[in-house]
């Protein structure tokens, strides 16, 4: 099977797999070990943290290698890439696809077809469109509200002050199920310095019903997921530490 080639070609040549696929399983094991260690330091069990392997820009064979090593949750940033990979890997049972990138309304139809979770809902218009598309497919989508805790203009996510009305709007969508919050924290050299941003997301969740209402906190990536686990992350999104650097 030839490798999947992304439309946004990030220094990867079609027809050539630059990654050493043999490294995927040991890297995945190392990430799991880091998760277990971070959870133990926080007085938590490793089963409390769900790993989403971010496969953006990676070939289908890399996902197959991770799948063979027991990974089932995968995150994609681009709607078209998500659809193409889901179709290419339709023979794999139990895959759970997470849409994690900024999403335009005109891509909602694509995402509603294949995603099990949309982690980047950040405005009412997008929620309404996803609901409409999911209804047409007789599907219900789990969604997370993305919050821009760092206030960075370069990143998506609603402001903390807009969270409550957005949550209320999603609650009115019959084919969306709000299950938590997501954030992309600012990149800081010392990952421990990011902890206050993760704590802010947790506090926002706790102010709106807590875990009983919104059980999931998706926060932390390859650079800082241990700090996120310490602050209560239930989902972490890890790409580079599993698949290697892109491009």
Automatic annotation (TrEMBL):
Q: Does the keyword Disulfide bond apply?
A: no
Q: Which GO terms describe its molecular function?
A: pyridoxal phosphate binding
Q: Does the keyword Amino-acid biosynthesis apply?
A: no
Q: Which Pfam families match?
A: Ala_racemase_N (PF01168)
On this chain, the residues bearing N6-(pyridoxal phosphate)lysine are 56
| Cofactor(s), by name | pyridoxal 5'-phosphate
NCBIfam families for this protein: YggS family pyridoxal phosphate-dependent enzyme
State the protein's name: Pyridoxal phosphate homeostasis protein
This protein's species is Sorangium cellulosum (strain So ce56) (Polyangium cellulosum (strain So ce56))
């Amino acid at each position: 099977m030839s490798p999947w080639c992304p439309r946004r070609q990030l220094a990867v040549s079609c027809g050539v797999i630059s990654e050493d696929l043999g490294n995927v399983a040991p890297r995945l094991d190392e990430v799991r070990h880091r998760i277990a260690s971070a959870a133990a330091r926080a007085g938590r069990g490793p089963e409390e943290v769900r790993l989403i392997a971010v496969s953006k820009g990676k070939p289908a064979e890399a996902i197959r290698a991770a799948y063979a090593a027991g990974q089932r949750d995968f995150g994609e940033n681009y709607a078209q890439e998500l659809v193409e990979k889901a179709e290419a890997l339709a023979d794999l049972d139990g895959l759970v696809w997470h849409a994690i990138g900024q999403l335009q309304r005109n891509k909602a139809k694509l995402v509603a077809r294949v995603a099990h979770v949309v982690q980047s809902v950040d405005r009412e218009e997008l929620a309404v469109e996803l609901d409409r598309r999911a209804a047409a497919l007789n599907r219900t989508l789990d969604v997370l509200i993305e919050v821009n805790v760092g206030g960075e203009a370069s990143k998506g996510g609603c402001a903390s002050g807009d969270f409550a009305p957005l949550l209320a709007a999603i609650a009115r969508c019959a084919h969306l199920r709000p299950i938590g919050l997501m954030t992309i924290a600012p990149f800081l050299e010392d990952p421990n310095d990011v902890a206050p941003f993760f704590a802010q997301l947790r506090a926002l969740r706790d102010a709106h019903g807590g875990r009983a209402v919104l059980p999931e906190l998706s926060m932390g990536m390859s650079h800082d997921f241990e700090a996120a686990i310490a602050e209560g992350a239930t989902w972490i999104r890890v790409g580079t530490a599993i698949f290697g650097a892109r491009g």
